[in-house]
Amino acid sequence: MLKKRLIFTLLYSRGHFMLSRNFRLQKVGDFNWLQRNYDFSHIAYSIDELVVLNVDRDGACQKEFCDVLKLLAKGCFAPIAAGGAVRSIDDARALLRSGADKIVLNTPLYESPELVRALAAEFGQQCIVGSVDVKRSESKGYAVFSSCGALEIEADLSGWIDQISAESVGEIYLNSIDRDGTGQGYDFGILDSLSRKIGVPVIFAGGVGNTAHLAAGLADSRIDAVATANLFNFVGDGLKKARRTLVDSGVNLPLWNIELMERHFASLRKVAQ
Amino acid sequence: MTNNSVTIVDYGMGNICSVVSAFNYLGCDALVVSDPDLVASADTLVLPGVGSFRKAMTSLREQELDLALEHAILNRGRKILGICLGMQLLGERGLEDGETHGLGLIPAVVERFSIDEVRGSKIPHVGFNSVNVPPGSRLMAGLPAEADFYFVHSYRMLPDGVPGLAANCVYGVEFLAAYEHANIFATQFHPEKSQSNGLLLLKNFIECA
Predict the structure, then answer these.
(1) Is B192 a catalytic residue?
(2) Are A45 and B196 an interchain contact pair (Cβ–Cβ within 8 Å)?
(3) What predicted TM-score, i.e. pTM, was given to this entire model?
(4) N or C terminus of chain B: which is more exposed, having fewer CB within 10 Å?
């Protein structure tokens, strides 16, 4: 039986990891800072997938982003999805060569569906994660945004999800702009508003502030994976503790021997470096 | 462990860097090689790969890597680990893009999951799934009776009638998730993407005689 997933999302822009609240970004620290304060390898042991997004508004520094991705991939033995500023097959290939297994796309879903189709043809549909940013709306219930939350697209949420999942997207990363970075918990209203079951796996994001929020997401049959991008809510070994609580409560997550990773491989890791 | 090294066969298909970094993490040198002479004389081989069976076999044959692999494995008795498409290539034949002969080291046919056998589940089979670890497995020693691994594939081999030790996974149908027989080892899943379970498996592969 397929397992559900606990996903950690890192947001990166021009040399820094970022914290996002309602899609407003704040610098936190660089790669060394991430290693110092979070011992990234420990976070990486406790998750089932890593998402790394280049959230620079101008899509700058793709090369530098690839370098950071390579550093992260060295210590992460779980699948990695990367994205942000992918505007060509070469951009996607550069991410895949830097350690990514999947490509996360948002704006191209709207602006250049032909690119999305070409990427799916080149790398397979399972390689494409469609990112869908949504916000509560008076008129539509929920509105969909592209361009890092800056541009509202005309389609309604249900129609949009049907459209992108019917064609080229192997998975959907569904994020709430309203809840993003607030720690208030997931907005399940997003899923309630859909007229049909989503035909591809759903990664749910936006609002996680504690372990109970993750548990609520994992308990929902419409959700295949829960994601959190909030560095501060799971500081130190917070994510490891959260995972243990979830596994102990019987959530259908893959079982890792995190202690084995930490103890047994620590000496080998030193040799390797 | 530090004196170990593996030779990773590079025939232009798929992401090799995560396989390299997993072996490096285990204190093992990973040489990425596409020269058939180096493959033929290697001690420990890894055949990774993602993509189409036919394309991969064509590429191996064009570079005479098929002959080099046969020499190392059959004549010199060196061990090999096939990962994902690399496992499938060890099979008898593959039915992706028409029928293609494989390396013939695992007597099984590589076929697409049928819609009937997966019983409504999606194809490709993507994600973490649990694998039944057979007692006495060298590759999976130290793992619990069921261990989780990361899969991404649409084609599979069935365990029926294969010699050696089969580790199975159920996705509607029971299929061959890992295989070991004498010096031939293979995993349909990606150990390099399967956290502690995968690293332990790779460590076992390096260490087993």
Answers:
(1) yes
(2) yes
(3) 0.93
(4) C
